[in-house]
């Protein structure tokens, strides 16, 4: 085993593997690590900044959905969330000073006259 392989093996022991679904991720990290580790070991700035460790972190995606939008006359409620198109429609109505009492049928939303969002 050469020095690069030994460094890679040590580095890879610190990479968490929560499920088998991450095997492609681990394989990609190992490939990059083999190329970068020897460079990293020779560059103090890269080592102290933990550059390779940061590169080995998987992306985290946060998502949420907007299920209601209120105005002075009531609340637009969409149990499955408002699509980007529906949010655009709401923004256009509000910009024009109009309420949301008549949502288009394809939005999966209903207007609850006189209701506030916390009453849903």
Give the N-terminus to C-terminus distance in angstroms: 64 Å
Helix content: 40-55%
Outline the low-pLDDT stretches.
none
- Largest sheet geometry: 3 strands, antiparallel
Give the structural class. mainly alpha
**Total strand count, please?**
3
Using only CA atoms, what is the Rg? 26 Å
Strand % is 5-15%
Task: Count the domains.
Answer: 2
Overall pLDDT confidence: 77
What can you see in these coordinates?
With 120 residues, the chain is mostly helical. The chain folds into two domains: 3-55; 68-119, no CATH class. It is built from five helices and three strands, in the order ααααββαβ. The protein has helices at residues 3-13, 23-42, 44-48, 51-55, 84-95; strands at 68-71, 74-77, 110-113. The chain has a three-stranded antiparallel sheet, with no helix packed on it. β1 and β2 form a beta hairpin. The longest helix has 20 residues, at 23-42. The model has no long low-confidence stretch (mean pLDDT 77).
């Amino acid at each position: 085993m050469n020095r690069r392989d030994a460094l890679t093996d040590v580095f890879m022991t610190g990479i968490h593997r929560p499920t088998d679904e991450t095997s492609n991720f681990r394989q990609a990290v190992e490939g990059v690590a083999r190329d970068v580790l020897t460079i990293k070991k020779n560059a103090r700035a890269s080592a102290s900044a933990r550059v390779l460790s940061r590169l080995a972190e998987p992306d985290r995606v946060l998502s949420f959905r907007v299920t209601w939008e209120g105005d002075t006359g009531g609340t637009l409620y969409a149990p499955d969330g408002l699509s980007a198109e529906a949010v655009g429609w709401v923004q256009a109505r509000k910009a024009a000073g109009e309420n949301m009492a008549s949502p288009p049928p394809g939005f999966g939303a209903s207007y609850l006259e006189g209701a506030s969002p916390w009453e849903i």
